[in-house]
């Protein structure tokens, strides 16, 4: 049993390290036919994120700074590159997630 717990802890740590964490600045958000579309900037790269209104974790974000976590492939609720958004300056491991989105443009 101890060995199984040890393997689980190592696998969970490896998964957590595979996530890319960085800062973004949300520029705008809009609602279009039931889809929330967020436009943001990560460094010098423009991003577009989407989620389906009414889905858990789908929220219109106010303009400003946030922490973005790029989830590993096949993680998250959408069939795309999934990201999760956290308050600016927070540690995603300990912070409450603000929203979950599909990264549609980069």
Commentary on this structure:
The N and C termini lie far apart (44 Å). By secondary structure, the chain is an alpha+beta fold. A six-stranded antiparallel barrel has the order 1-2-3-6-5-4. It has one domain. A hairpin with a 2-residue loop joins strand 1 and strand 2. It is built from one helix and six strands, in the order αββββββ.
The number of distinct helices, counting runs of at least 4 residues, comes to 1
Shape by Cα distribution: globular
The ordered H/E elements are HEEEEEE
| Derived structural class | alpha+beta
Percent of residues in helices comes to 10-25%
Could you give the order of strands across the largest sheet?
Answer: 1-2-3-6-5-4
Topology, number of strands = 6
Alpha-carbon Rg, integer: 15 Å
Low-confidence stretches: 6-15
**Average pLDDT, to the nearest integer?**
85
The overall number of domains is 1
Distance between the termini: 44 Å
Largest sheet: 6 strands, antiparallel, barrel
Strand content bin: over 45%
List keywords for this structure.
single chain, 106 residues, alpha+beta, 6 strands, 15% helix, 47% strand
Secondary-structure blueprint:
Blueprint: H1 2-17, E1 20-32, E2 35-42, E3 45-52, E4 64-70, E5 81-87, E6 99-105
Antiparallel strand pairs: 1-2, 1-4, 2-3, 3-6, 4-5, 5-6
